Amino acid sequence: MCACYTCIASGVAFAANITPYYLTDGDNQIVYEIKNGEKTNSFSTFRRGNPIAVRDTIWLGDLDDAEAREYTLSGTATGSSSSGGRNFTQLLDGAAGPDGNYSAQCCGSENFVTVANSDWSDQRSLFSLGSTASNGIAYDLSDNTLYVADSTRILHYDLLGNIINNFSFGQSLAALAYEQITDTFWGFNRGTNNIVQFDRDGNVSQDVDIPGFNPGNVWGGEMIVNAVPIPAAFWLFGSGLLGLIGISRRKKP
To answer: Model pTM?
Structure first.
């Protein structure tokens, strides 16, 4: 059973995720757009299009580093593409940083965090995760660090591969994304099809049901990022979001 409530931040009421959250299902060649806890759009892509980076457009990479294609934020193919080097496999999720895209491997005896150009070309190893298998990755623009999901854990790394912190949810999250406007993180719970908001210490603030959302095989997820971090107050007040009120659904413990 679900309880309704309103989330308040900086004096502004809002529902679930303010920033569109793009979720990728490469097996079924589809991207879903989630906003305010509702599915607002979906569009067709290409098979194995999993790792995703979102800026003013969407660049969708290949699970096995074979290619990448560009789409508008509404899902129209621009016709731009790039070739991959086929140097990596099982790249489930992606993240956009100020200088390029990041991804992390799943399921090998040794897995790597990778870095690539913004169109996913020239993908190369950044550091080794060892046997840690990644379900998702997010880039934190506030301090230029990475969050990597592994089973029920989230591991916080610097760009040299040093572990800064880790925490466990007791649930498995994929498709990690950083939301600049709230300075928080989101993940997709593959068991419940919910989206989960959490802070840098792993504290969950929202666990949101998406009405009627039953995707096939979502792994990748990302929200729009800007190269320069923008204070939340600017977005909330400058973009006219003051007074925006909505209701989200949160499961009871």
So the answer is: 0.86
